[in-house]
Design brief:
By secondary structure, this protein is α/β, with parallel strands linked by helices. The chain folds into two domains: about 130 residues, Aspartate Aminotransferase, domain 1, CATH 3.90.1150; about 240 residues, Type I PLP-dependent aspartate aminotransferase-like (Major domain) (Aspartate Aminotransferase, domain 2, 3-Layer(aba) Sandwich), CATH 3.40.640. Helix content is about 40%, strand content about 15%. The chain contains 14 helices and 14 strands. β4 and β5 form a beta hairpin. α3 packs parallel to α10.
């Protein structure tokens, strides 16, 4: 049978993380540092775990209904976004539950895009976000994040130029962003808001890591900026902040008319969420800030350790939040795929190359995830990186 590949899959690459994970698994070597995937060894809320255990025996947790998610979780998610943004959301009209945050992102894109519509994203960016734009028949429009001694900054001139395109329909921003750990400043959020208001654009705010902020940074929720409440769709997730990765629960909060369409897409996509997870996620959300702050403190300590370990080994762009950082292996003259193989073979470090994670410039980086290995195992990483990469750097 001769089959023509569907157009929507053209230029849609894999993400690379699975290949690195498979390679690390195949070695079956406990000495390998697992820095390739966004996992974490920090456990979820104990009360949430107990609620999930009890849910296994509940009929309500073994149902397709309600399609929009449980009332308790919708109320908890709407209250959560209300608290962080200062915008009042009625959970009955403004919130639906999705089967994970990225499912929520895809549902929003499917609900708002026409074929050929452009969506602005930062560069580098998670290739899974790029692929979801493409899957929804949209066109990613990449805006550089500029690396510097103090971290990443959004290229505001490039952003202001890009939003003038008549094909731009939406802006998709994640802060902290992944894989960079970039956190948008007040000036940058103001520029995004000004452009969205003046051009009548929607903002899809990927809030998966919004509270994982380092060095005392304050959370800025874009829905709370002037003119943004009616055009911001917040997509949250239990995976990162609540450390509930495999539970597959997210939430979409925003203007009622958009949320209604997102709910319709969700019914046509995954139909429903993971029933035994929803009440547990509600409990974790209702627990407040304490556990997230504690986990963030540990993740910052790991980031700081890696920055110290890598000093003098390879240039690193400091992340201001999130779970990952980028190493500039291009400055050593190494493509990211080559550097990744060397790190595995000679350093026993699993790290994902950033091929396809944005423009060609992303190929100069490999990603280290610091959320899944304790500090005792991360100690000494710098010497392993030097042994793996420095002998092969090109002059």
């Amino acid at each position: 049978m001769i089959r023509t590949r569907a157009t929507r899959l053209i230029n849609m690459p894999g993400i690379g993380v699975d290949r690195m994970g498979d390679a690390a698994d195949a070695l079956a070597d406990r000495a390998v540092l697992r820095l390739e995937n966004l996992d974490t060894d920090l456990r979820p809320n104990p009360a949430a775990l107990e609620v999930a255990r009890l849910a296994i025996d509940k009929d309500d947790a073994n149902s397709y209904l309600p399609f929009s998610g449980s009332s308790r979780l919708r109320a908890a998610a709407a209250a959560h976004v209300t608290r962080l943004s200062g915008v009042s959301y009625d959970w009955k009209e403004s919130c639906v539950i999705s089967a994970g945050g990225l499912n929520g992102i895809l549902n929003v894109l499917l609900a708002i895009l026409e074929p050929g519509d452009e969506v602005i994203l930062t560069d580098p960016i998670y290739v899974g976000l790029l692929n979801r734009v493409r899957l929804a028949s949209g066109v990613p429009r990449l805006i550089p994040l500029i690396p510097g001694p103090e971290g990443w900054r959004l290229d505001l001139d490039a952003f202001r130029s890009a939003v003038q395109s008549p094909r731009v329909r939406a802006v998709l921003m994640m802060s902290p962003s992944m894989p960079t750990g970039a956190v948008l400043s007040q000036q940058e959020w103001n520029a995004v808001a000004d452009a969205c208001v003046s051009r009548d654009l929607l903002l899809i705010y990927d809030a998966a890591m919004e509270r994982i902020l380092f060095d005392g940074r304050s959370l800025i929720h874009p829905a709370g900026l002037p003119g943004m409440a009616e055009r911001t769709v917040t997509v949250g997730s239990a995976s990162k902040e609540l450390r509930m990765i495999g539970w597959r629960v997210g939430w979409v909060v925003g203007p009622p008319d958009i949320v209604e369409d997102v709910g319709l897409v969700g019914i046509s996509n995954t139909t429903c969420q993971v029933g035994i997870s929803m009440e547990a996620v509600a409990v974790a959300l209702e627990a407040g800030e304490g556990e997230v702050a504690s986990a963030t403190g540990e993740w910052q300590a790991r980031r700081d350790l890696l920055l110290e370990e890598l000093r003098g080994a390879v240039p690193v762009v400091t992340p201001h939040g999130g779970w990952s950082m980028l190493l500039d292996v291009g400055s050593l003259g190494l493509p990211s795929a080559d550097a990744s193989m060397l790190l595995m073979a000679r350093g026993k470090i699993a790290a994902t190359p950033m091929v396809n994670w944005g423009s060609d410039l992303a190929d100069q980086y490999v990603r280290f995830v610091f959320s899944n290995e304790p500090r005792v195992r991360l100690a000494g990483l710098g010497s392993r990186v030097k042994a793996a990469l420095v002998p092969f750097q090109r002059s």
